[in-house]
């Protein structure tokens, strides 16, 4: 007891310098092994600031993406040289997919700076699209790969739940919206082609179905008859699509498409409370020896730009199952080592 009392007195006399800082560091990883080798192209400038260095933005995005375990990123300079050597002037999604195959990468990153203002409070807008070399890779929505239907579902952040539900509702409503004139013409053409193929095909004997009727009994005051369940469109997005399917014994058939497999658009403000909170945590783990704390990052355009790229990359991955368990870090205050 006397020894424990002496230790307690020693800790009290030492003050706060004897108590370490306990900080939780977020971790991220690549949740898509099929998209591991990536090339980043120089970003487009769609903002009002004509002085933005597009290569600098691409290099910042490259550095933050390469820091994520599971990615192998082609240097920006090499990507520029390979674009010139390919002879492809990428303008359409098909061009970017062909360029990705030429560069022998799984995906190619095409980004744009939509807004930029270096003066306080600084702000930056980023819109990034990933095009896969394999056109049969379909878009990966926000919410895919998260632990839905498990005991860990309650720990999914509300912001990711909203983003996933919004993405699902957006795709579902596409099947319920009236077609635009061009879409309607294409739909009629597809129906006409299918009808012609049915007429040319030989008639087949209907196979007896062993499945029970889809009608279900209805109990209660309405009646006890049988009614058919509501019919859903063939392309109706199912919420179960957020959970990865089990492996298949055979490779699926090719279904080419030309949409980006990953897309993320954000606008960051330097005076947003959540933004500055994450910036302070980001700077804390960088051990930056330059003068100034996280506030200095808001005054240096290159640092602010790189942190925006960091947020953009990690938000996109975390919304699709790329967020790992936080790492608990114990740090002693540096002041105790000053002499």
- Broad CATH class of the domain at 29-138 and 255-337: Alpha Beta
Strand content: 15-25%
* CATH arch. level architecture of the domain at 29-138 and 255-337: 3-Layer(aba) Sandwich
Instruction: Kindly name the structural category.
Output: alpha/beta
Structure description:
With 339 residues, the chain is of the alpha/beta class. The chain has a domain at 29-138 and 255-337: Rossmann fold. It has helices at residues 2-14, 54-66, 76-86, 93-102, 158-174, 181-200, 273-284, 294-299, 301-318; strands at residues 21-25, 37-40, 44-45, 72-74, 107-117, 123-132, 216-217, 226-227, 262-269, 327-331. Strands 2, 3, 4, 5, 6 and 9 form a 6-stranded mixed β-sheet that branches. A two-stranded antiparallel sheet has the order 1-10. A two-stranded antiparallel ribbon has the order 7-8. The radius of gyration is 27 Å and the shape is globular. The two termini are 34 Å apart. Residues 194-225 have low confidence and may be disordered.
In short:
The protein is an alpha/beta fold. It is 35% helix and 15% strand.
Please render the helix and strand layout as text.
Blueprint (H helix, E strand, L loop, with lengths): L1 H13 L6 E5 L11 E4 L3 E2 L8 H13 L5 E3 L1 H11 L6 H10 L4 E11 L5 E10 L25 H17 L6 H20 L15 E2 L8 E2 L34 E8 L3 H12 L9 H6 L1 H18 L8 E5 L8
Parallel strand pairs: 2-4, 2-5, 3-5
Antiparallel strand pairs: 1-10, 5-6, 6-9, 7-8
Quickly list its features:
15% strand; 10 strands; Rossmann fold; 339 residues; two-stranded antiparallel sheet; six-stranded mixed sheet
């Amino acid at each position: 007891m006397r020894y424990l009392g002496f230790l307690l007195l020693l800790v009290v006399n030492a003050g706060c310098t004897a108590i370490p800082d306990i900080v939780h560091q977020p971790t991220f990883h690549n949740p898509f092994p099929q998209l591991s080798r990536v090339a980043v192209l120089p970003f487009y400038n769609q903002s009002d600031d004509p002085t933005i260095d597009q290569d600098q933005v691409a290099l910042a995005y490259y550095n933050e993406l390469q820091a994520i375990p599971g990615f192998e990123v082609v240097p920006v300079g090499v990507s520029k040289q390979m674009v010139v050597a390919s002879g492809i002037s990428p303008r359409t999604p098909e061009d970017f997919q062909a360029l990705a195959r030429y560069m022998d990468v799984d995906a190619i990153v095409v980004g744009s700076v939509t807004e930029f203002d270096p003066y306080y409070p600084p702000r930056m807008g980023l819109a990034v699209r990933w095009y896969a070399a394999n056109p049969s890779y379909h878009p990966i929505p926000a919410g895919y790969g998260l632990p839905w239907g498990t005991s860990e579902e309650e720990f999914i952040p509300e912001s990711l739940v909203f983003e996933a539900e919004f993405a699902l509702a957006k795709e579902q409503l596409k099947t319920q919206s009236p077609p635009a004139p061009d879409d309607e013409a294409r739909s009629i053409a597809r129906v006409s082609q299918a009808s012609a193929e049915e007429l040319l095909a030989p008639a087949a004997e209907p196979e007896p179905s062993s499945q029970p009727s889809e009608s279900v009994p209805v109990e209660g005051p309405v009646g006890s008859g049988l009614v058919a369940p509501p019919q859903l469109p063939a392309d109706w997005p199912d919420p179960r699509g957020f959970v990865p399917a089990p492996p298949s014994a055979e490779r699926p058939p090719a279904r080419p498409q030309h949409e980006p497999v990953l897309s993320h658009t954000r606008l960051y403000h330097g005076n947003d409370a959540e933004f500055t909170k994450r910036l302070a945590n980001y700077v804390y783990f960088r051990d930056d020896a330059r003068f100034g704390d996280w506030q200095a990052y808001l005054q240096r355009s290159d640092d602010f730009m790189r942190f925006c790229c960091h947020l953009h990359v990690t938000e996109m991955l975390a919304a699709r199952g790329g967020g790992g368990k936080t790492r608990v870090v114990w740090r002693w205050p540096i002041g105790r080592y000053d002499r």
